[in-house]
Amino acid sequence: xxxxxxxxxxxxxxxxxxxxxxxxxxxxxxxxxxxxxxxxxxxxxxxxxxxxxxxxxxxxxxxxxxxxxxxxxxxxxxxxxxxxxxxxxxxxxxxxxxxxxxxxxxxxxxxxxxxxxxxxxxxxxxxxxxxxxxxxxxxxxxxxxxxxxxxxxxxxxxxxxxxxxxxxxxxxxxxx
Length: 176
Ligand SMILES: [Zn+2]
Fold this sequence. Notes:
Bound molecules: zinc ion
Low-confidence stretches: 23-44
Helix content: 25-40%
Structural class: alpha+beta
Number of strands: 9
Strand order of the largest sheet: 3-4-8-7-6-5
CATH architecture of the largest domain: Beta Complex
């Protein structure tokens, strides 16, 4: 009888140990699944962005494009290729190709730069407060590559009352 007990006790201990270990193993694998899916989510959100070094941008863009898009410059008024241009199509970011504006929303503001009363969609652009040159303005950036496009003002036509004043050099037109 005693001999059986000596055999049973270690066996019971082993079984108990096995069941105690089980939940921790499950918790571990669950932890791995969770961290993996977080990694994937981060990876995806990064895929939608275009991130390049200033050296790379310098190689890809013309000096004037680089000055405006990457150094927040402004082309001279009334000189841009799309200032008095009203063909039907879509205006893309000259740096990354992100579709930004439509000819349907373009109007002749007379301000010397292409003007739109809205962007193609809210998530196409980033709006950022700009306090340079002693003024408070709202800068418009491409949401995909964060290149400078121009500024948005509150003196536009209906239905939005907004005027997206954009540098031609920041845009690439595609007929549609
Ligand atoms: Zn862009």
